Task: structure prediction
Amino acid sequence: MAKIAVCGYGVVGKGVAEVLTENADSISRNAAEDISLKYILDIREFPGDPFEKLFVHDFSIIEKDPEVTVVVETMGGVGAAFDFTKRALLSGKSVVTSNKELVAKFGHELIAIAKERNLNYLFEASVGGGIPIIRPITQCLAANRLDSVYGILNGTTNYILTEMIQNNASFEDALHQAQANGFAEADPTADVEGLDAARKICILSDLCFGRHIDPEGVRTQGITGVSLTDVEYAKRLNCKIKLLGRGLRTGADSATAFVAPHLVSVSSLLSNVDGVMNGIVVHGNALGDAMFYGAGAGARPTASAVVADVIDAVKHSKARKYLDWLDAPPGYFTDSCYVRSRWYVRAETSLQQIGWAFGKVNFVTYPGASTTESAFATEEYDERTMQKLTSGMNVKSMFRILD
Ligand code: HSE
Result:
């Protein structure tokens, strides 16, 4: 009988406790061993909760209990979550987490501790909610040299953009709805400003390209600058606006990662990833492209990935799963301002100035569009060049176009 402790009884922790209990029979069958929840750690009290008897408030109870072999960390953040994860590993327990902030920032350190002790540190739920993506990258695609990984990595912002595009909803209403559905982070700034997507693209890039990228160095632009006017212009370019995280190899031993709103062609699969769904495209030199699609946030989809990792940790208690990346040498991380793409620009400026800066561009308009501004799509430039070319213009929006 494997005993589990869940640390953090928020949206995901609650989902994990429910799924572990509801699906106990099939979970035990899949793990070839009975799995039961022994403790739930939280600083809060939950009177009347179905798991009321399992609550503890002191991590050392879990740490010192030899019966607990797997600790689930669903607390979030990099403070107590880091401390408890380290202590759990040092006391010989495998750890499963949905905490993308912790994995992106300190994953390589925690993996090293797990490796030394022949334990597992698993984090399938940290990217893409319930979508299998970490295992496919590290196992099914292991024969490939992976060159790029990109996609819609944040369910909350995709939900907001979809509501704005399809139902003309206001940003605030759509965000409240995402919070009510349990998609948003405790502080939704992490969602809307792109930080959550930045952490996820770092984890994916670490795994795909093999070296650590610090989320703090990643250029990150969220969706607060996307307006319904931009949505209209994008439609005229046969595109939808999506928040993308992108990781790319830039040389033999260099890579970049960044997060920004993009115009995505309506003919691409990604443009149809709507609502809370996530879509992730991985390009390998043998495979070509593969796209992974599914529910990217929410209690039960995320719990589905966490509990699958629990099963794996129980099944492989004596054999580590291969999940690893190395530190980056100086110069490994390339600033994404050098990545070239076509651009959509909306600016208050004269046609003459646009002509001087860019030569020929593809202008777009729609009935009722403002007469004081112009919107256009450019040829390919890097971001630094774009800043120079538009420096004399009153730029309202400037987004990359994904080709
Ligand atoms: N807030 C995150 C999202 C939760 O909306 O994608 C899942 O990681």
